[in-house]
C-alpha cells in the first residue's frame, strides 16, 4: 500500500546526470542567442562608460587638489612676504644703536627740533 517508491542509487545518479546535462544545454543555448549576446555587449558598454566617467572624475579631483595645494602654497608665500615687509618696516623705524640715537639727537638739535622726554599737552 505504499504510494512512495524509493529510488535506487543508480536511478538517482541518472537523474542528476540528466539534470546537469539539461542545465548545460540551456546555458549553451543562451550563449548562442543573439539577444543574449546583444544584452551582454550593452552591459559591457555601460561598464566601460561607467569606468571612463570614474576616470574623468578622478582626474578632475586630482586636478582640483593640485590647484588647491598650489593656492595654499601661494597664500603661504604671500603671507611670508607680507610678514617680511612688516618686519623690515618695523626694523627700519627702530634705531639701530646708541650711536644712531645720538646722531639723530644731534641732527634734531642742529635743526632746532629738540625733543624732550615729556610731551606738552
TrEMBL record:
UniProt region (Disordered), positions on chain: 21-41
Domain of life: Bacteria
Full protein name: Membrane protein involved in colicin uptake
Organism of this sequence: Prosthecomicrobium pneumaticum
Amino acid at each position: 500500500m505504499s504510494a512512495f517508491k524509493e529510488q535506487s542509487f543508480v536511478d538517482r545518479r541518472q537523474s542528476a546526470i540528466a539534470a546537469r546535462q539539461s542545465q548545460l544545454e540551456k546555458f549553451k543555448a543562451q550563449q548562442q542567442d543573439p539577444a543574449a549576446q546583444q544584452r551582454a555587449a550593452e552591459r559591457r558598454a555601460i561598464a566601460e562608460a561607467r569606468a571612463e566617467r570614474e576616470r574623468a572624475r578622478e582626474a578632475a579631483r586630482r586636478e582640483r587638489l593640485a590647484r588647491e595645494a598650489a593656492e595654499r602654497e601661494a597664500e603661504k608665500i604671500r603671507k611670508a612676504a607680507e610678514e617680511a615687509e612688516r618686519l623690515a618696516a618695523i626694523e627700519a623705524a627702530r634705531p639701530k644703536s646708541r650711536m644712531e640715537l645720538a646722531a639723530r639727537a644731534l641732527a634734531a638739535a642742529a635743526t632746532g627740533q629738540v625733543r624732550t622726554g615729556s610731551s606738552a599737552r
